[in-house]
Amino acid sequence: MKRGVSIALAVLTTGAWADTKNVYLQAQDGTQVRIATVEISDSGTYSVEMESDPFANHFLSMRPFRCLEGPKKHWCHVPYPYEIARDISTDLTDLEYDFLFVWKGAGEYGINMWNGVYYKLEAEGDRLIGTLLELDMDLLSAPPNAGNLRPLKATDLHASDPDSHWLPHMVIE
């Protein structure tokens, strides 16, 4: 683990970081949408409570989704369906898995799971900043092998053009 990440995690999981933080998705113009709160214990375990107000209910491709409705794209939350430790004492991967999304065009009827959104989190002072990466969510269509709590690999995540997306950043503060 990189020294900067280790120091940041030490700050996040001790009293220096408040127990509860707000989670925002941020547009290019700086506009933020609060989507959740995260409560972090001193040990590094955490829980997430998704907000209900900014999300609209959609029934897409025969499944219910909670979506943020943008002018050209909708951002639909995809709760991670498999076992997860919800522990950030060594890295931020579990938290990244809790905030998976798939986007769809505002006028499209269905959803294409290859339009997955993964926010790679990095500590920046006393907050976390997530950078949007693209992901084919079909990789998660089948459960991983027992005990594999981290089925996504770095090669599954792809750099994205932030200008081509409505909410290219995540901020946890």
Describe the structure in your own words.
The longest helix is centred in the N-terminal third of the chain and has 10 residues, at 3-12. The protein is built from 2 helices and 11 strands; from the N terminus they run H-E-E-E-E-E-E-H-E-E-E-E-E. Helix content is 9%, strand content 39%. The model is unreliable at 1-8 (pLDDT under 50). It is globular. The chain has one domain (3-140, 159-172). The protein has 173 residues and is mainly beta.
Topology:
Layout: H1 3-12, E1 20-26, E2 32-40, E3 46-50, E4 56-60, E5 63-69, E6 73-77, H2 93-98, E7 101-105, E8 116-124, E9 127-135, E10 157-159, E11 169-172
Antiparallel strand pairs: 1-2, 1-11, 2-3, 4-5, 5-6, 6-7, 7-8, 8-9, 9-10, 9-11
Descriptive keywords:
single chain; 173 residues; mainly beta; eleven-stranded antiparallel β-sheet; 2 helices; 39% strand
Reported for the largest beta sheet, the result is: 11 strands, antiparallel
User: Count of helical segments?
Assistant: 2
Distance separating the two termini: 22 Å
The total of beta strands comes to 11
Specify the helix fraction band: under 10%
Number of domains: 1
Shape annotation: globular
- The secondary-structure element order is HEEEEEEHEEEEE
Which segments are poorly predicted (pLDDT under 50) over 5 or more consecutive residues? 1-8
Structural class: mainly beta
Instruction: Kindly provide the radius of gyration, computed on alpha-carbon positions and rounded to a whole number of angstroms.
Output: 16 Å
Strand content: 35-45%
Rounded mean pLDDT is 87
